[in-house]
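[agent] plan:
  1. take the single chain provided in the ticket
  2. run structure prediction with default settings
  3. attach structure tokens to the ticket
  4. add a short note for the reviewer (M.T.)
[agent] executing step 1
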Amino acid sequence: MTPIPFEIDIFRQSGDWPECKLLVHKAVASVWSQLTVPRAGELSVALSDDAYVQTLNRDYRHKDTPTNVLSFPVAESAPLLGDIVLALETVQREAKEKSISFEDHLTHLIIHGFLHLQGYDHEKDDDAKIMEDLEIRALSALAIDNPYETDEF
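[agent] step 2 finished; step 3 output follows
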């Protein structure tokens, strides 16, 4: 796996998160190695809870509900890449509902969030296909099954 040339700051905003520093680094490194021209910069990963993520989702996306992951990119000229914020209860619930491990689901969400920071989105079908293919390749490199075959999202 290609080493990543930037720092990842991980903040545990909710005390119930398991230790996942290695998982975060592996997920980011895996997707980093799939990108042709990746954008580098300091990355912040906030391990939070549903209440905080619901507030962010309401304030920034006008959706008053928790979600699994939110990404906040920083301008391309900045030395920072951006922030990924995850909601523990939603990640746990979704993993259980889909009968997949918490670690595999979390890995997918980190990869998904990191791709958003790289400028990818899934608003249009063609863009969604590109993003999903990158996610699948990054997950496969970590021996994690294709989440889209199980309708994870």
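[agent] step 4 note for reviewer: The domain at 8-150 is CATH 3.40.390.30 (Collagenase (Catalytic Domain)).
[agent] ticket updated
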